[in-house]
Amino acid sequence: MKVMSCLKLLCLGMGCLAAASQAQVPKSPMLVPLEFNNFGRNDMMWFHPGMAVLPDGSWLGTVQEVCGNDHFGNPHFAFSKDKGLTWTPPQEIEGFKAKPFEGDANYQIAVADIRPFVSPNDGTAFVFGCTVFYSPKGNVSWEKGEKPDFPPEQGLYVTWRPETGWSPMKVLPLPEVKGNYRTACTQITFIGNNEVLIPIYLDRDKTTFGGYDSARYGIVVGRYRQVGEELQFISMSPYIDHPVGRGAIEPSIIPLPEGGFALTIRAEDNKGYVCCSQDGTTWSDKIFWHWEDGTPLTMSTTQQHWIRVGSKVYLVYTRDDGSNTKIFRFRSPLYMAEAIPSQGVLKRETEQVVFPRQLFDGKEALYGNFHCTQLTENTALVIDCAAAGGRCKVMVTVVAP
Q1: Cys-Cys link to 379, which of 187, 203, 233, 375 (CB 3.0-4.6 A)?
Q2: pLDDT, tens digit (0-9, with 9 covering 90-100), for 319-334
Q3: Domain regions of the chain by residue span
Q4: Vertex 126, ends 122 and 131: CA angle to 5°?
C-alpha cells in the first residue's frame, strides 16, 4: 500500500472520530501499515521503539540502538508533524545517557526499555525506563563471576514540555520497596484526579535462568499523583507473584470500557496471564490467556500489550501458531485479538496478524519488543522494530474501525 494511501486512511479514521464513537465498531478492525522511514536513520539498528501523540498533534518517537544481545545504546527521541513520514534528526535524551559507574569505570550505568506517554492532564510527555548496568561485554546480568556492588535497579523517567524541553532524569518513587524494581517496556494509564497507575515488576526471590543467577520477579501496581512534571507516590497494590521461572514480568495495564482495569503479564511457563481490578489496587487471581473453548495460547516469555477500539479491548501478542515453532520465542508474526479480560479469553475468530513474518537476508525477522499507543478512542497504533542479520526496520500499523 502506498504511503499516501496509508496517510489518507489514517486521517479518515481519525477525522471520523465523532461519528465512529456513535457507530458500532466492526468485529474486525482495519489494519493500516504506515511508513516510518526508520525515524530518518537507515544506518541504525533501532530497537524498543515507542510513540506518543503530543497536544499539538505531532508525534514523539523514542528508540534505542541495539548494540548486542540485551545491550542497548542511549535512548533517542525525534518528532514528526506528518504522522511518521518525516522526522526531525534523532537526538539523545540527555537525562538518560549512560554514565561511568562510580564504583568501577569499566562498567556503565544506563537506561533501557523506554516507553513514552503523554498526560491528558496538561500535555506533559513522560518517558519511562529502568536502570541497567553494562560492561564492555554488554548487560552484566548475563555475566558470571564477581561483579561490582551495584546499587538497586530502579524505575526511571524524564519529562518533556515544549517550553522547557527535557527534564533531568528522575527516580520513580516506590518507598515501600528497598531492592530492584523496574518500569521496563511498560504500559501505564492516567485515571483522572491527576492520578496515574504504573505497573512495576520487582525482585521477590532468587532463581537460575539459562544457567545464570537471576531474580524471580513479582508485580505491584503503583498509584501516583502527577504534580506538574513530578510523580508523587500515593500507594501500591499487594504483590502479584508467579512461582515459575523468573516469575511475573513486564506487566501492562489498560482501563476497561465497562469500568475497572486489566493487567496482562509476561511469564515463563509458556503462558501469558491477565488479572482484573475495579480500583487498580485489589487484583483478581491470574488467569492464563486461552481461546473461547478453553485451549491455552502457547506463549514464550514475551510481552503482551493493549489497544482499544471503541467499546472493545484487544491484546497484542506473539504465540506458537504451528508454523513458527522453531522461531526464537515465537517472535514472528505479531498478532492481535479481541479480549474478554475478566475471563482470560481471546476471541479466535477476531485474531489478525499485525506484522507478518519476513526474512532479512535469509534470516527470520523477530518482533516482540513493541509498543501500543492510543491515537483516539477508536484508533490505535502498534510499533515494533523487525531485526535480523544486521538489518532493522521500524514497523508500524494503525488499527482503525
Answers
A1: 375
A2: 999 999 999 999 999 9
A3: 196-288
A4: 160
